[in-house]
Write a structure and sequence with these properties.
By secondary structure, the protein is mainly alpha-helical. It contains 26 helices and two strands. Strands 1-2 form a two-stranded antiparallel sheet. It is globular and about 80 Å long.
Length: 614
């Protein structure tokens, strides 16, 4: 749950707007529940004392104390997540696990730059409104029935969340879907489809009861929604958070847990090839595509069954007439969506530039390194680089370089077409000769909208992974799970996926993966399975949080709508969670297992201090 805050404001307080016990220029601080302060102090003091009292050689126990303190404060959100992420930087040097220089270098590196650049591009897309245009266009094409409208809402959110924050995408999509619901409500009332059926029982038991439809009007002139309409609205709204969570799986930069995997793998196994954007897209996009259609099918079966079967059985091909009221209703809905789209006007200059830049970004990521041919980064390496001992050229330009370069251009390219004379104006006395113009991205937008907390949490993950490795805690944890050595790999994946899917319902998915991936590395070393297999399974499962409002930002946003109740989210989310876990395990055990070549346990995955306990 988000911590209630009071806005920080400096102003001259007058008698009209003055508050009790405040003075001019006084800063109003963020308010936290008292138990969080007490709990934070208790956890930090106890874990620090326990760690300091342990023997000098008990590095595993001292590292475990630090990780336990971080985990408890992350799970309870007793402090802001980004501040909690700084605990390893303070406690690891204090208890003698790593020195300050070593631990601080973990907090900002190549992966942080990759994520930062992605944030900047997403913020510029959001600022110019390109995402809204794309969403309305897709909805206008598919808004021709209940099942198709749900598919449109799912696909819009799914596509946008591949390149934008899941929460930001949901916050943009829900008002659009909400306006469609309101329009549908008005059309339904106009056509009389919401008339309620009332049954009248006769006194004579031998005679059948009668029923009739009545139009109920409230005192304020509004009409209550029918049960069928309320049911459909629930499904339509739930399409948005489901699409956002599933869309983040498809790309490496779609959601922070994906980059957490890359960073912890590279920190644990330096020099070994991790997943890049192209590889991730090859293995995760098919899974995401299957999940979005599985989620859409599930929601339709629960909330729009008749419309779904009408669609998949292709009855619309020969049922040209259809129900007159139904056809009329969906014509009005589609007209409403097109009207909203027409308000945007034609494509503006910044939208055109951002659309081209996003397409260019994706192409450069996908074509950077190719199999069987030289990608553009490899051509560059052969041009300016030297051949290494292994007979290959060192590739200098990686995924982060691409996105940072394009992000830099956003601060340079003007937001207006320079060919239309916006650069110059007729100077008046004392005025500049050149006009001041906006650019596609400015510093104020970056400072306000960049999720800095994610970068801090990611840094905390690097520190935890390094601390587990240096202290020997990873080896100790792995030894405790050695009994799973002979179990089939899919059984282990099912256990891991189920556990992560449950955990991420109660904790941030970024925090969950940050804490669990070092443990999964240790588990893979103990049972001699490829580390990427379990890490991939755990990371993908961290995005499968559909049950609770507090599980993810998208879930919390949709829960704010009065049509959605907790029981609705749990009832649908439980089924969705189980289906998603099974599909994810099947994916990681089949094509992901094959594409990433995870069948053999590599020599480089052996723990460095494996002989300590021998």
């Amino acid at each position: 749950m988000a911590t209630p805050t009071v806005a920080v404001k400096y102003s001259t307080i007058t008698e009209e707007n003055s508050a009790p016990n405040t003075t001019s220029g006084e800063k109003q601080y963020t308010k936290y529940p008292q138990w969080k302060t007490v709990f934070t102090i208790f956890v930090l003091v106890v874990t620090t004392l326990v760690a300091m009292l342990l023997p000098v050689k008990a590095t595993e126990g001292r590292a475990a104390c630090v990780i336990l303190a971080t985990a408890m404060l992350w799970m309870t959100e007793a402090m802001p997540l980004m501040i909690t992420a700084l605990i390893p930087a303070i406690m690891f040097p204090l208890v003698g696990i790593m020195d300050t220089k070593e631990v601080c270098t973990k907090y900002f590196n190549y992966i942080s730059m990759l994520m930062m650049g992605t944030f900047l591009v997403a913020e510029s897309v959001e600022a110019c409104g390109l995402h809204r245009r794309i969403a309305l266009k897709i909805l206008s094409l598919l808004g021709r029935g209940e099942a198709l409208l749900m598919l449109g809402a799912s696909l819009c959110t799914w596509i946008l969340s591949m390149f934008m924050s899941n929460t930001a995408t949901t916050a943009m999509m829900l008002p659009i879907v909400g306006s469609i619901v309101q329009s549908l409500r008005e059309i339904t009332h106009t056509l009389g489809d919401d008339l309620l059926t009332v049954h009248f029982d006769k006194d004579d038991k031998d005679k059948e009861s009668k029923s009739t439809k009545v139009d109920i009007v409230r005192a304020d002139g509004s009409r209550p929604d029918s049960k069928e309409f309320k049911w459909f609205c629930k499904g339509l709204l739930l399409c948005v958070p489901y699409g956002a969570s599933i869309g983040g799986i498809a790309t490496l930069t779609g959601t922070p847990p994906n980059l957490v995997l890359k960073s912890i793998f590279e920190a644990t196994f330096p020099g070994q090839k991790s997943v890049d954007y192209q590889t991730w897209f090859r293995v995760a996009f098919p899974l995401s595509l299957i999940l979005i259609f599985a989620g859409w099918t599930l929601l339709c079966l629960i909330y729009a069954r008749s419309s779904y079967f009408y669609l998949i059985t292709l009855r619309f091909l020969w049922d040209k007439s259809g129900k007159s009221k139904e056809v009329q209703k969906w014509r009005h809905v589609n007209k409403t969506i097109r009207k909203e789209y027409s308000k945007l006007g034609s494509l503006r200059f910044p939208e055109i530039i951002l659309l081209l830049m996003v397409v260019l970004l994706i192409l450069l990521w996908l074509l950077r390194v190719l199999e069987g041919a030289d990608g553009w980064a490899e051509v560059h390496a052969k041009t300016i680089g030297k051949m290494q001992d292994n007979g290959k050229y060192k590739v200098y330009l990686k995924d982060a370089w691409v996105v940072i370069t394009l992000a830099l251009l956003l601060f340079i390219i003007p937001a207006e077409n320079p060919l239309r004379g916006v650069w110059r104006c007729k100077p008046a006395d004392g005025q500049e000769k050149f006009t001041r113009i906006n650019r596609l991205l400015d510093l104020d937008t970056v400072m306000k909208k960049t999720p800095w907390d994610v970068l801090f949490i990611l840094g905390g993950g690097y520190a935890i992974a390094a601390g587990c490795k240096d202290s020997g805690l990873s080896l100790w944890i792995g030894q405790q799970f050695s009994f799973l050595h002979n179990s089939p790999h899919w059984v282990i994946a099912l256990v891991v996926s189920s556990f992560v899917a449950v955990l991420t319902e109660f904790a941030s998915n970024t925090a969950s993966t940050t804490l669990l991936l070092p443990v999964l590395v240790s588990l893979s070393q103990a049972i001699q399975k490829h580390p990427m297999y379990l890490m991939m399974t755990g990371t993908l499962s961290a995005s499968l949080a559909f049950c609770l409002p507090s599980a993810t930002g998208p879930n919390a946003l949709v829960f704010a709508y009065p049509e959605i109740k907790v029981i609705d989210m749990i009832r649908t989310g439980l089924v969705m969670n189980m289906v998603s876990v099974l599909i994810t395990v099947a994916a990681t055990s089949t094509w992901i297992y094959s594409v990433l070549d995870l069948s053999e346990y590599p020599d480089w995955a052996m723990p460095v201090n494996a002989t300590v306990g021998a």
